[in-house]
Each structure stands twice: as C-alpha cells, then as structure tokens.
Design brief:
eight-stranded antiparallel beta barrel, Porin
C-alpha cells in the first residue's frame, strides 16, 4: 500500500493504495446451449429459408473459482475505521469488472492488524462468443424483429448487477515500507436479466421468440442465465509506504 500524506491542518489525511490477486467463486444458472432462429418468418428446416445460429453458452460455463486482479485505496475516517474504494477485474471465458466501496474496521491494530471489511459494489460481466457462424445447411442472414446478423458478426452476452462482500482482512507490516495483506470472506451478487448483443449494437433479450432450444425446433429456450460472484472469495497483495 502506498501512503500519501496530504498536508492541510485539521484536514490532513493519509490515502493508502494497494493491489494484488483476487479469487472469486463464480456461480452460474441456466448456462445451456441454445439457438437463435428466424423460423417464425421463414419456416423450420434446411429446406426453407430459415437462418439459425448456435449459441454455445453451456460450453462457456465458468462456475467455480475465477482468478483476477484488484486495485484499491483506503483512507481513515475515524478511530480504527477506514473508507475503501476498490476495482476487481476477473479473467476467463466470462470476464467481469467490479467496482466496490465500503469500510474496514480494525479489530486489532499494530504491526499485525486484523479488520472486518464489508463492501457494496456493482459488477458487469460479459460472455464473448466470438464470430457468428450459421449452422451448416441454413440460410444467412438471420432476420428477426430485433435486428439482422450473419456470418462473421460478433456475438456476446452482457450481465450486470449489485454485489455485497464481507471479509476478514489480516495484514502484516514487514518493514517500515513493505507490508502484505490478505482478505477472505463471502460475497453474493444480484444480477439483472442478461442481454445478447450482436456487434455491440443489436440487443436480443433471452425472452425473444427467436431464442429457441438447440433441438432445431421453434420452442422458446426458456432460459434465464445468471453469473455472479456468489460464494467464498480470497484476496492477497503487497503494500508499500513512501
């Protein structure tokens, strides 16, 4: 953590910057493969002019531990009480960024410190499916009421919502300048309805009639996929004082 002293009489305060590794537990629901089809207008089957693309959401299920990085800053707002601002960035097939704010209350102070740290944040997750490839034998483009797309267009799914984390934060000052910290706790998120995007322009809600099961029928898929940081999380990093 880098400590910067701001001179200003009664308003003098220290800002501490920190960074390190972040490990969240990703929970998912309804991550199943499905199709998008214009069957309502052009009929079903390769003998018609139906356009149909496969969405491999089930193949991108990332439930489990997800590594990432974090950057943050703290400042004292009272005896044993610090305000926190933090950015978390997760890596993987489903990437996410989380912006958190909260407080840390020191249960133990000294060379070894222990605090309790509740945080409230906003997370945004994206599943990137890459370039669209229509299923062999079907007719491009796919033309539905939400928009038109074809081979080579980019396809992704966005999810966002609020998150809560509460953890214990031990830290140890190795020297006057260098320290280490950790945090272990439990988090949960509340994600809104996901939206499929084509070229970051066309938005297709999963309730659309063109979003169908992957059995080559016209049956609405009935999916409500969710991905959030619900479960145990762990953080560790280094600190440095100027």
């Amino acid at each position: 953590m880098v400590v910067v002293c701001i001179e200003g009489g009664l308003f003098a305060q220290e800002i501490t910057y920190y960074g390190g590794l972040n490990m969240n537990t990703i929970s998912t629901q309804d991550f199943n493969n499905f199709h998008i089809s214009d069957w309502e207008t052009y009929g079903l089957g390769t003998s018609t002019s139906e356009g149909r693309v496969s969405i491999p959401l089930g193949d991108r299920d990332v439930a489990g531990e997800n590594p990432g990085i974090l950057l943050g800053a703290t400042t004292s707002i009272g005896s044993g009480l610090n305000a926190i601002g933090e950015i978390q960035y997760g890596l993987g097939n489903v990437t996410y960024i989380g912006l958190f704010t909260g407080v840390s209350y020191a249960l133990i102070e000294g060379n070894f410190s222990l605090g309790i740290t509740p945080k409230l944040g906003y997370i945004s997750a994206t599943a990137d499916f890459g370039a669209i490839e229509l299923i062999d034998g079907y007719t491009p483009p796919v033309i539905i009421s939400e928009g038109t797309f074809t081979n080579g267009d980019s396809l992704s799914m966005d999810m966002s919502g609020f998150a809560i984390q509460v953890g214990l934060t031990p830290s140890f000052q190795v020297s006057d300048q260098i320290g280490i910290f950790g945090q272990i706790g439990y988090g949960m998120s509340f994600v809104s309805d996901p939206v499929i995007k084509v070229n970051d322009e066309i938005e297709i809600p999963l309730t659309a009639t063109g979003v169908v099961k992957d059995d080559f029928s016209g049956t609405q898929a009935g999916l409500n996929p969710e991905a959030g940081t619900s479960g145990l999380y762990f953080q560790m990093g280094i600190s440095y004082k100027l």
